[in-house]
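Researcher: Re-running this chain for the archive, since the previous output was lost when a drive failed. Same request as before.
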Amino acid sequence: MESSGLLIFGDRERVFDNIPPEYEHAVRHIRDEFDRDAFHSAVENPSAYVFFGVAPCHVGVDYDWDRLPSFLGLAIWSESTEQFVPSDRADKVFARLNLTPVNTFQKEVKVRDFSPEQFEMPDSTWYDGPAAGVRIENRSGGNALLTEPTVGEQPTDQPAHDEPPAVASELVTDTRVNRAVEAVEAAGNTVATADVQTRVFEMIVREEYVRLDQSGIDVETLRSAVGPVVAQRL
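Model: Regenerated structure tokens:
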């Protein structure tokens, strides 16, 4: 965040000049939910903090997208101390800022009681199946990732090989249109076709990402094709 309150977004490699389509859903969520007043009142220099998180999209696991937040807070870096904020405190900060932290499966596990080889992956909070992975942290800030190799290894959906108008006709469902309308209304806004079109497109990219990516479809062309289909369904 800049001192002016402007939120800056990026991934592990770069700061975004333009938000990539696969992140639009998460960026909207953060901009809508992030409590800037609470953050400014809690710290002297807002620009000294970097927030890390996960922007879930469909890369092999069909989560319950209606429940799964568009962003899950993972960690907070403090430039003033040049270290990460302790995870318990970071979770509380995310919650205070109206952002959901990643769910914690277990705390305060003694080293002698933990074996990576015998670790049993817990059930996911966001779909009916095992978690895709677990991030393990120690008190000194070190961390490691254990993954569940069976999760997402065999995507069941076929790539979207049709032309963008045909793909849009398939993926713009009544359910997605209704969810978009409800989201606009929940934000306290008047339902406008353009807003619903934008939200439906963001849902499609998030929830059908693996299909779109494997097909090589031009996402911006798909964006244009989604608009008329949404307008017909409203």
